[in-house]
């Protein structure tokens, strides 16, 4: 099944814009252009007689009402007009054209002024190709009738007016179409921004709670083993668990508020405590002075993710962190990477996203001791 793409009409465009459509007094702005029907009124008054004059005035009045009514319809009912079939739209225009024909006996050539209004409504209401075809037909009809109807003079004013009116509404139509496209683009960008923020928030929560809960679990297990053998040490570990839980809660609140930033020095201190609780020997740097300020937050995330994985998955006895101005490495002597394991987890996926944003690259693989190696390098 094939679908036909239809060019949005000005009517449809205003419908899509909803509240940005015609304002309460939009019909009055459109009604100003009815001033040019004064010539038709004067022609009926001057040349019409008897029943022809009455019909002419009635047709002129109904024509003006149909033109203004179109804009009223555009406001009150037009917001649902996208589904109107083409034949209904053509019937509306045919009705306006019929009213113009009723003016000919009394207004004569001056009734051709109505063609400008019919062309304008067609450009608003119909598909572009059909609207242009009707406008061209109206222009040709005006020019031809002035040449073949006895007593009518050919001054080219009606054809030129139809052309200018069609061109003006075409420009308005294109502007509305561009406005619709721009609004859709903005809506898509806003939706993408919301999705990106959700991803960022989910990533932060995973990293925050993953690390904190891992350390809490390790310390709770250690406290459980020490309750009988060393109550004082067990009590200290329980106190640490409480402190870590409070810190994790504070981190979550800060993440929700959107103000949370990691400190590389603080993460190294936390890493040392987590490794000690897991009974893993820590070989960590004692200073971060050589790391540029712009790299420290990214490196802090590397420490957090790397140490969490060491404590949770590695089964290692030793963990080493190496720092330089442009690179950080987290190495252990555990069981190393496994296919589909820690090298492709959610934490490392989030770390890769952060590294991409900072122009850095992530490397995962086997360490020289046979364990796991996580490295992040800034720059080429």
From TrEMBL:
Record domain Signal transduction histidine kinase subgroup 3 dimerisation and phosphoacceptor: where: 197-261
Matching Pfam families: HisKA_3
Entry keyword annotation includes DNA repair: no
UniProt cross-references to InterPro entries, sorted A to Z: HATPase_C_sf (IPR036890), Sensor_HK_TwoCompSys (IPR050482), Sig_transdc_His_kin_sub3_dim/P (IPR011712)
UniProt GO MF annotations: phosphorelay sensor kinase activity; protein dimerization activity
Taxonomy, superkingdom: Bacteria
Keyword match Chloroplast: no
Transmembrane regions: 25-45, 54-74, 86-104, 116-138, 158-176
Keyword terms of this UniProt record: Kinase, Membrane, Transferase, Transmembrane, Transmembrane helix, Two-component regulatory system
GO CC terms of this entry: membrane
Protein name: Two-component system sensor histidine kinase DesK
Organism whose genome encodes this protein: Kribbella steppae
